[in-house]
């Protein structure tokens, strides 16, 4: 795909987007928005990876509680069929959509990944993670803490994990090495 973009002068030899490339992207996105269509996932992946046009921002949502054993967070599990992270635990999250409020993004996370939870308030963004080695494409996470009501349904394949312990080994690597320590620090100072 990178060669096609270079041949059409949408990216330069270094892989950076040219003015023509940005104009084509603007027209593509405007056309999709006007027709109320979603761009295919492969298009977004290419725009973020080979096209180098933008860096997507996932919102990683922390739901936390203390059940008498210490501060815990809920980790969801990717399906076994996930092409990039099969069966791995992760901090639930989705990509922020253009024009979307953080509260709406967190409601979408609850609906998609945590049935039984209703987000009542976005408390704070407690950290970030610049993940250049994501196998899908480079992204920049915002670690967000919310207030919520409810409990994740038993059908949710995940569980509660104590923050005063080491992260689970079967967790997406940068969630374990970058997100977990930042969430631990927040938990320590928020008590």
From TrEMBL:
Q: Where is the Nudix hydrolase domain?
A: 66-165
Coiled-coil regions, chain positions: none
InterPro entries documented for this protein? NUDIX_hydrolase-like_dom_sf, NUDIX_hydrolase_dom
User: What protein is this chain from?
Assistant: Nudix hydrolase domain-containing protein
What's the source species for this entry?
A: Candidatus Buchananbacteria bacterium RIFCSPHIGHO2_01_FULL_39_8
